[in-house]
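Chain A, query sequence.
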Amino acid sequence: MNITTLPYLKNETQVHYEGSIDKLGANADWDWWLYRDGRGEWVIFDVYGPGCIYNFVQHRYISSEEPVFRFYFDDDEAPRFVIRAGEFGIKYPFVEPLASRYIGPVDNGRGPIRVIRSFLPMLYKKSCRVTSSVKLEGFDRSLGHGGWGHIVYHSYTSDPGIETFTGEEAYGSLIRMLKNVGSDPKPTDHNIERILSGIEIAPGEARAVFERKGHGALNAVRMIVGKRERERLNDLWIRMRWDGHKTPDIFVPAGCFFGNELWENDARYLMMGSTRSGYLYNYFPMPYWREATVELVNRSDDAFPVTLFEVHYNDSACYEENACGYFRASPYYDRNHTEGADSIIADITGRGHAVAALVTCFAQKAGVVSCEGDVRVHIDGIRTPQIESDGSESYACYGWGFPTPPETNPFSGYDGLPDNPWSMMRTLLADWYPFHSRLRFGIESGGNNDQYLEHSGAVFYYGRDDADIICTDALDLENEDDIARHKYRAEGGKRVTLSSFFEGDDDHIAVDGAGYAEMEYSTFTARVNPANMGVRLRRRSDQNIGRQAARVFVNGVEVTERIWYFADRNCHKRWLEDEFDIPERYTTGKAGLDLKIVPFSLDGSERASWNEYGYEIFCFI
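Chain A, predicted structure.
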């Protein structure tokens, strides 16, 4: 994990989530399995194609049977790695602080509960399957039930020189860095300090505290304030502009910028943090190529004294402008409640990747349980969330609410009062969320948007204003003219119709559609931009039956980097949009593609469960 490379935008990566989401869209987030394999193990993760697991979280009652997790890679018959839940935090390489355990309180009889989590990167060249020895289901402690959790992972369009995880990798330098939370994790050679001490920002004043012409990068921003000012930090805003941009790249309260809006306790993460003594830091690299300006803005009616404001910068930083994004924050989502719908903390357009998300929550009074809202992230306009969470606390990689603040690890955590208010931080240093045209980050108020909660926060990202993906064609299988225009054919398939719902915030809106299922293969043509740098296919389908798999052919040539495979299912919210990225070696220089989709069964069934109700075709440019 090289922090200095975070500004570089990467094109051939997607982020995904697999976890225990209530299939009805409510709050019964306790069942987590895909299918049972021939060994009798419960499969909780199953993907094909090169990729990397970055985040593994599982929480269950300590009185229930202890699961054994087995990790299979690249179609191996034997597991490459085996670990018991109780070994997280102590069995190499799942050791502190890369991996850890947490046991929540009794909490008026709701607990105690054990949470295990890992941020250990686990690469694979071809495939990955994770199993549990016990079925992760139910909520009844007396019956030994329990099983909440998730896996967040990247998938790669092609193999970028991956070496599959063995469990014997050398993580010593990474572990040492993570144990040194509070210090800048980046090399500090050639840093120059700009230090202001004893300054006072008048009411309504915007004070420039750093201005620099030329190219370079900010490496660290630190601040010290007094006790009274610590409690007023949401009155002091930080405004940053890179290269003379008309719209500020960052304009958020100081609490948000340093990763905690409540200041009840110390909350220190690797890249940002704060202490009750008034020391605050942000270590994300912030490159610029022509000029940089940092201002402190006092939005209160009283003067705001700042004991110390410190910027470390590097004039010789050599970030390549065309390959990098600017460090930015989404427009600050000021404290608000959205009745019956998700609070949309960020809706970002352009291209880039998210690297941190801060959300603060207030219920109507202190102590009210307010943890049930799921985080839902939609990327590039896809209607199926690509990232979700079984409750707010699971997004921060904890469990059973927010009863014991502060809880922190180098990557995530929360501060506040027991249950609420809370301010949670999730940094995405390896499992960042790439987007090419849009990223939408929302959170529920309660288990089904049925609770009065007020949220605030922002998403931090590296980005550019322009999109680098365009939709060049679409095939609607309900439209006969579209079918004819694209020369669509579903050999041996049957016509099917569906009226159902997508998962997520809009899961109450019925959508109708028609398509084809159980075909031997389907073929169609698609318009693309000849100057494309790869093509993305987005399919609309019925996910009533899981483990849908197909091979993809482009102009008669099979895409060998991966198969198109979606292992999960939902018999209630049945609409699904999933995607398949075709590397540029199959598509560049072509104005049109002849596509062939050949379904096949992974479970031994005679007929594949594949179906399709339409496609959108996108070109990377």
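The longest helix spans residues 172-178. The radius of gyration is 25 Å.
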